[in-house]
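Dear colleagues,

For the upcoming journal club I promised to circulate an example of a predicted protein-ligand complex. I picked one with magnesium ion because it came up in last month's discussion. The inputs are reproduced below in full, followed by the predicted structure.
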Amino acid sequence: MPQKVFCNRTLNMRKIKFIGLDMDHTLVRYHSHEFEALAHETMKQRLVATKKYPESVLSLPFDFNLAIRGLVIDKKKGNLLKVSRHGAIRASYHGTKPIDFPTQQKLYKSIYIDLSDTTSYVSIDTAFSISVATLFAQLIDIKDAESGAMSGVGTGPSTIANALSEKNPIMPDYETIAHDVISTLDMAHRDGSLKGEVAKNLDRYIIRDPEVVAGLERYRKHDKKIFILTNSEYSYTKLLLDYAINPFLKNYKSWSDLFEFVITLAQKPRFFYDNLRFLEVNPESGLMSNFDETLRKGVYQSGGADKFAKDLGIEGDDILYIGDHIYGDILRLKKDCNWRTALVVEELDEEMEAYKKAQPYSAEIRTLMDRKEPLERTLVDLISVKIETGREADENKVHELQTQITELDKNISQLIKKQQSVFNQHWGEIMRAGNEESYFAHQVDRFACIYMAKLTDLLEMSPRTYFRASRRPLAHELALGLS
Ligand SMILES: [Mg+2]
């Protein structure tokens, strides 16, 4: 069986007593293309209706491939950036147009940005990363077209510029656009309108997977207690669980038997560091009442991690929590509690398939690099001797080496283009930025003990599995061949 669960920090499943599950996009998966398209559409309508964006916004098409998860929005400059683990910009777009390297260097002075500068940068790694990044980029195009049209300079796509009549309101600045897109999505999320749409079309948005239910029932046989910790409210939680869990149960009557606790409106990540009161939810009526007793099997709202672990008489590292959102699900959890963490990275399967397709190119690149490196060393030596001794170098030899290196570089860069083309056409891989890890991959590495494409990848494994992190070579160990 191919390996499907990847381990950053050693995790012994035998020691795990409780398995916590985020619901949306973890326990219950969504059809992402449909769901992101819905978010894109909802944001557009709201921006026009409530923030007075021009009506041309409504006709912006949704293109799922325009963005990938983990990009960074530069709110001030109207750019999308792909950033490495060290904060180096490895690809950049202004609106939907790529920025070439010399322009990028002029704009940013250095290739490094400070991601802790939240007034400029926002990293988008949520379930809505594609729709947010895409719409932001498209709105920047409209803003530029409008500015161009107003100043008489035709900078933007003429169709968009033409679509703007003088009566149309003026687009706000880049920073406001970023803020509006994000806050509009937040609002649509919070006031239940997105979920309302999903609820009306469950077939269209929700994936039903009997394997999830079979896997959870198997884990119960090993006496692993399972709970849900979701930011969704009870009525939506019930709707999804009734739809995606109940029809496939074999050993239990209902999801409320299968799950020890279902904690709704949990306000993650606040749940992990604050101590809000638990409310008890009546599963039949949905009515809530104050609850100050010791937690017992049931449905709750709100609450906090501290009381949860205390009441259950367990330590943080007896719990494995599985979620799909770095910030909401695992970052604060890792920093504030010592629960073990697992991250679902939906794109992982596709990315690994693409690695396989890219393999022939990667191999060729390595061969050419192996040829190039000795040439570079010889050239360095020749020129060093010239500088240090004042003796003339063999100019023919220098020229020949330079020509060979340039030729190899040309081939290598063509191969890199081919290699990247099997991944997202605009942004390449999600987990890598050039030779380095992407900032997203770095976050996964830091905060997730294990990670996988979907919950069933873990549930297929025995609940007694010992996940071992492999030893990672440091640069000097690699040089010694000690890896
Ligand atoms: Mg989620």
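Two points we might discuss: Confidence is low (pLDDT under 50) at residues 152-156. Residues 212 and 456 are 6 Å apart (CA to CA).

See you all on Thursday,
B. R.
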